[in-house]
DNA sequence: TCTGGGGTCCTAGGACCC
DNA sequence: TCTGGGGTCCTAGGACCC
């Protein structure tokens, strides 16, 4: 079983810990420059204020209802988050911190008879220790735990909800929208609907293969996850693979010096983040945008990257490189709204770059010329298993058939076979664990 | 007037190597 | 009838998530 712990209205809850006056009042927390609403208390949600809405569109509603507004304080939220996470680890050591306010729990080792009571205890003590209210969903897969968490928030008096494979689950899957499932957004929901799949229940009952063709392997996994077959494992993500620091300006500028000042700050902050996770970066990218909402200004957005000769975590080098990239990007005739820096190709300091790290990426396994006119799945699997290296994290299978090559027109060129330009080799990439489950 | 910031993964191919 | 096999690195866009 998996658990999903989600802090309720996290940023608002953090503010309330230090200001009890805010309890039972409508409160929202705003983004950088107080532009958007990025967290809402239940009272604010009840007023119909949506997530991510521009503040100016709701000014009237906010004033009328005396909604309290707060600028965001990410240092505070980050600190509160680590308090919640370390409290969680005290009860369940095997957790995946999924975001600032969410964590998945591996509940395998917890006695299933007492599981729900334990979840209620965890919830109570987290609140006592940190002041943050959480909801906990429990299910046989991460996707179902996510759904259970949603139910906990809506329909549970004690903040805990258990969702095993059952008729009850099927009923829920029939009642909710596709977009309520983790991993399915509007775009994919529309694609599914065009195929006649309108509810998560219908998705669960679909042929996984068809869904893969429609959406990709990501969609196929969701089908299995909805059936209670885990395809997503708990992942302990230790280090970030990319680090971005960017901000919008309060007002637009076309002064290169303003841009350089901002960029220097962001690059320094990114380098700090990099060092704090003991990593080095191998590439740097800078991007720049005009105001995408403005109808009267000319639009320009561009980015430029450089691969470094040596890995680095030096603030000085990163700022220098970022400045050089800005020189490529800057055009004096635009007004700029946003600039940012991204550190890429991140490696752990002191890591052996020649070993597993390289094995995990790229085409790991190519098998051909061993199969003779078969489409039998077990033949293919057996042939592959023959040579598989257990260290692999991923594998790719492609298959070809007669007709890939264009035959030479005359005898003179008899060895000059050409690849057909319109030929696309079907292939499928998957995680090693998925293969084991299938085979 | 005003519209966030920070991530991950997958696909589909091209260029190039021996 | 039956065409070479195997591999790395990179790009760029498009999804999705909180």
Describe the protein's topology.
Layout: E1 2-7, H1 10-18, E2 27-30, E3 37-40, H2 42-46, H3 59-64, E4 68-71, H4 74-91, E5 95-99, E6 102-106, H5 115-130, E7 134-139, H6 142-155, E8 160-162, H7 167-175, H8 186-194, H9 200-204, H10 208-215, H11 217-226, E9 243-253, H12 256-276, E10 279-290, E11 301-312, H13 315-329, E12 336-344, E13 347-348, H14 356-360, H15 377-386, E14 394-398, E15 405-406, E16 418-419, E17 427-431, H16 432-438
Helix pairs in contact: 4-5, 10-11, 12-13
This protein binds a DNA duplex (18 and 18 nucleotides) through strand 9.
Describe the structure in your own words.
The chain is an alpha+beta fold and 439 residues long. It has three domains: 8-72, 3-Layer(aba) Sandwich (MutS, DNA mismatch repair protein, domain I), CATH 3.40.1170.60; 77-226, Alpha-Beta Plaits; 243-413, Dna Ligase, domain 1. It has 16 helices and 17 strands. The protein has helices at residues 10-18, 42-46, 59-64, 74-91, 115-130, 142-155, 167-175, 186-194, 200-204, 208-215, 217-226, 256-276, 315-329, 356-360, 377-386, 432-438; strands at 2-7, 27-30, 37-40, 68-71, 95-99, 102-106, 134-139, 160-162, 243-253, 279-290, 301-312, 336-344, 347-348, 394-398, 405-406, 418-419, 427-431. The strands form five sheets. The chain has a five-stranded mixed beta sheet with strand order 5-6-1-7-8. Strand 7, helix 6 and strand 8 form a beta-alpha-beta unit. Helix 4 (74-91) runs antiparallel to helix 5, helix 10 runs antiparallel to helix 11 and helix 12 packs antiparallel against helix 13 (315-329). It is globular. The structure holds a DNA duplex (18 and 18 nucleotides).
């Amino acid at each position: 079983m998996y658990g999903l712990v989600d802090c309720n209205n996290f940023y608002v809850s953090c503010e309330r810990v230090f200001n009890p006056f805010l309890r039972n009042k409508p409160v929202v927390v705003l983004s950088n420059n107080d532009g958007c609403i990025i967290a809402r208390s239940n009272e604010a949600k009840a007023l119909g204020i949506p997530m991510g809405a521009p503040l100016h569109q709701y000014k009237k509603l906010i004033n009328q209802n005396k909604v309290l507004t707060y600028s965001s304080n990410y240092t505070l939220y980050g600190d509160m988050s680590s308090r919640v996470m370390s409290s969680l680890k005290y009860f369940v050591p095997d957790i995946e911190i999924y975001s600032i306010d969410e964590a998945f729990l591996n509940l395998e080792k917890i006695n299933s008879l007492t599981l729900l009571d334990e979840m209620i205890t965890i919830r109570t003590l987290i609140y006592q220790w940190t002041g943050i209210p959480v909801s906990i969903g429990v299910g046989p897969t991460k996707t179902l735990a996510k759904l259970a968490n949603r139910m906990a928030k809506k329909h549970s008096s004690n903040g805990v909800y258990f969702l095993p494979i059952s008729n009850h689950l099927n009923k829920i899957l029939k009642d909710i929208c596709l977009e309520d499932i983790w991993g399915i957004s509007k775009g994919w929901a529309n694609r599914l609907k065009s195929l006649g799949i309108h509810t998560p229940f219908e998705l669960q009952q679909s042929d996984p293969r068809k869904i893969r063709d429609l959406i990709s392997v990501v969609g196929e996994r969701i089908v299995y996850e909805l059936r209670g077959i885990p395809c997503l494992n708990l992942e302990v993500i230790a280090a970030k693979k990319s680090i971005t620091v960017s901000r919008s300006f309060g007002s637009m500028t076309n002064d290169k010096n303003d841009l350089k000042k901002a960029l220097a700050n962001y690059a320094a902050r990114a380098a700090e983040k990099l060092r704090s996770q003991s990593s080095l970066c191998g590439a740097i990218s800078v991007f720049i945008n005009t105001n995408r909402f403005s109808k009267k200004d000319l639009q320009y957005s561009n980015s430029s990257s450089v691969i470094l000769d040596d890995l680095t975590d030096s603030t000085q080098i990163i700022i220098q490189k970022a400045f050089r990239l800005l020189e490529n990007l800057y055009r004096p005739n635009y007004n700029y709204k946003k600039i940012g820096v991204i550190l890429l190709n991140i490696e752990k300091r002191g890591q052996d770059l020649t070993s597993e790290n390289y094995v995990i990426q790229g085409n790991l396994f190519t098998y051909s010329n061993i199969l003779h006119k078969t489409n039998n799945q077990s033949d293919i699997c057996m042939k592959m298993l023959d040579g598989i290296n257990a260290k692999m994290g991923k594998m790719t299978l492609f298959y070809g058939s007669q007709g890939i090559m264009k035959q030479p027109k005359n005898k003179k060129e008899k060895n000059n076979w050409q690849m057909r330009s319109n030929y696309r080799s079907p292939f499928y990439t998957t995680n090693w664990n998925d293969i084991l489950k299938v085979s």
